[in-house]
Design a protein that fits this description.
CATH topology of the domain at 1-123 and 451-518: Rossmann fold
Mean pLDDT: 86
Low-confidence stretches: none
CATH superfamily of the domain at 1-123 and 451-518: P-loop containing nucleotide triphosphate hydrolases
Radius of gyration: 44 Å
Number of helices: 19
Length: about 550
């Protein structure tokens, strides 16, 4: 429900604030006073295109802001889907800067116009004579049938089954399309996989082979350097080990003379132990180095095979090669199991299709039950609204199951006696369309929580008792839904729970449109003017009082 509307710097509106009542709000005013301008500003909140020409003062930005109470709309899921913070009191704002830049906000979070439209379409429904063309759309008519029939739960179940069916069907079709190519490349995949399996490389093998190859290629030099090191460290007459032993003996002889000598002796002792250990390791390494032509050839061939596979599969290491082997194993397994996988998916798709048909049949039956009651209620309401010979018929042809079921719904209508019903889009005039749409909105208001409904001169072309009937229907609708009606008829104005008057103020240099909530006496005077002109007579004033008293 709309709690507050603020419009700043838009067309003839410098600053306008409105706090609509929960029920029926009527807006009246002279032609050109700014009623349609208000709708234009509201259209910005609905995501309509912005234009800098609408700025009242071109040096300042235009701001249209609305606060809504969302308690009854169940929009938490939608807000979560759009990654927006949900608040029961939500503020929608649209700004148009002087340079033409447009920005939109929901609870101060910037949003795109597409997101703005998705949210506000659930909050406000602006209806005018020119916005009834969708009534001729079969998809729109189908939505109306489902809303009237209360099919939301059945629809959700069907949509869930539709997703399951289309997902399974797509999996089957993708695998079927792949199957020919998979079978054609089966031999090639097997050859590549066999080659990798036969090679049987392990994760760290490359590093070990390359290290061993370096040793084999430089065995003579390595052995020579290690032999030199052995002699220098321990086997020659003046080896490090021999000299270090003499130093150790000398320090040991004086170690009892001072604690510092004792410390030096211990350090040399540790060094001697470490040197002996190093010498043993060098001797061990020297003993391990032995040039082996056969082993060298084996290592060379193994590395060549590895590098060949690297190049062939365009990888740089064994890890990547093993990943390719894993992928090839999966593809090979897929080819081997292809027929059984296809058969399984085909069966699964067939079963999902059968389940879908069952749910589609249930949905169709629920819809068909609503055809008669909805048509009769629409016919009755249309007669109240001045189409005494109205006839409405709803029918459906069965089509292949789709995202909304298997019903191609069509609403048929005739406004004149002796004329057969024909598809709605072919026979209804603009005025008839408006009344048809109003009747549908009236019926839907009984079935669901509708957004704030804005009616822009939907009463055009009606008068007298028909206008009174239309006003009563608006009043009834407003018992459970907020309605804002822009009207030029006193019969409608008299029904309002709140009456707003739009007027032009030309006292300053630039004309400004303003809006005023009328008190009881002002309301009587305004309705009297709508009946009898700018200077209403006593009888017009009395008529105005009587109209208000009849509500």
């Amino acid at each position: 429900m709309l709690k507050q509307l603020t419009i700043k710097n838009y067309a003839l509106i410098q600053h306008l604030e409105m706090e609509p009542a929960a029920g029926l709000n009527v807006i009246t005013g002279e032609t050109g006073a700014g009623k349609s301008i208000m709708l234009g500003a509201v259209g910005l909140l609905l995501g309509n295109r912005a234009d800098t020409k609408v700025l009242w003062d071109e040096s300042e930005k235009c701001v249209t802001e609305a606060e809504f109470d969302l308690a009854s709309y169940k929009l938490q899921k939608l807000f979560k889907t759009e990654d927006l913070d949900y608040e029961t009191r939500t503020v929608i704002r649209r700004e148009i800067s002087a340079n033409g830049k447009s920005r939109a906000f929901i609870n101060d979070t910037p949003v795109t116009l597409e997101v703005l439209r998705r949210i506000t379409s659930r909050l406000m429904d602006v209806h005018s004579q020119h916005e009834t063309l969708e009534l001729g759309s079969r998809s729109f008519q189908l939505k109306l049938i489902d809303a009237y029939a209360g099919n939301q739960k059945i629809l959700e179940q069907y949509e869930s089954q539709w997703i399951a069916f289309t997902t399974t069907k797509q999996e089957y079709e993708v695998l079927l399309a792949e199957s020919t190519a998979l079978k054609q490349e089966a031999d090639y995949v097997k050859f590549q996989l066999d080659e990798l399996v036969k090679a049987s490389f392990v994760e760290t093998e490359q590093e070990k082979l390359e290290s061993e190859m370096k040793v084999q290629e430089n065995a003579e030099e390595i052995k020579s350097k290690l032999n030199f090191s052995i002699q220098a460290l321990g086997t020659s007459e003046y080896s490090v080990s021999t000299m270090l032993g003499e130093v150790r003996n000398h320090l040991n002889a004086i170690s009892s003379f001072a604690s510092s000598y004792q410390t030096l002796f211990k350090r040399i002792e540790s060094l001697k132990i470490e040197l002996d250990d190093i010498l043993k390791e060098v001797e061990s390494e020297e003993g391990n180095v032995e040039f082996n032509e056969t082993r060298r050839e084996e290592v060379s061939q193994r590395l060549s095979a590895l590098y060949h596979l690297f190049k062939k599969h365009r990888v740089n290491n064994v890890t990547e090669l093993l990943k390719i082997q894993e992928d090839l194993e999966m593809r090979s397994q897929k080819v081997n199991n292809l027929d059984s996988m296809l058969a399984s998916l085909k069966q699964k798709t067939s079963q999902a299709g059968e389940d879908l048909d069952l749910k589609a049949d249930g949905l169709s039956k629920a819809r068909q039950k609503a055809f008669g009651p909805l048509a009769r209620q629409m016919t009755s309401l249309l007669k109240e609204l001045g189409i005494p010979d109205a006839k409405v018929k709803i029918d459906a042809e069965t089509v292949a199951a789709g995202s909304t079921g298997k019903d191609n719904v069509e609403v048929f209508f005739s406004a004149n006696k002796g004329i057969d019903v024909r598809p709605l889009a072919q026979v209804a005039s603009g005025g008839e369309f408006s009344r048809l749409m109003f009747c549908l909105k009236y019926i839907m208001a009984e079935k669901t929580a509708m957004p704030t409904l804005v009616l822009d001169e939907i009463d055009t072309g009606v008068s007298g008792e028909i206008a009174i009937s239309l006003g009563k229907l608006m009043k009834e609708m407003a018992q459970s839904h907020q309605v804002i009606s822009i009207s030029h008829l006193p019969q409608i104005a008299a029904q309002g729970d709140a009456h707003y008057y739009v007027f032009k103020n030309s006292t300053s240099k630039k004309t400004v449109s303003s809006i005023k909530k009328l008190n009881e006496s002002e309301r009587v005077e305004e309705i009297a003017k709508m009946i009898g002109g700018a200077k209403p007579s006593a009888s017009a004033i009395q008529n105005a009082k009587e109209l208000i008293a009849r509500t």
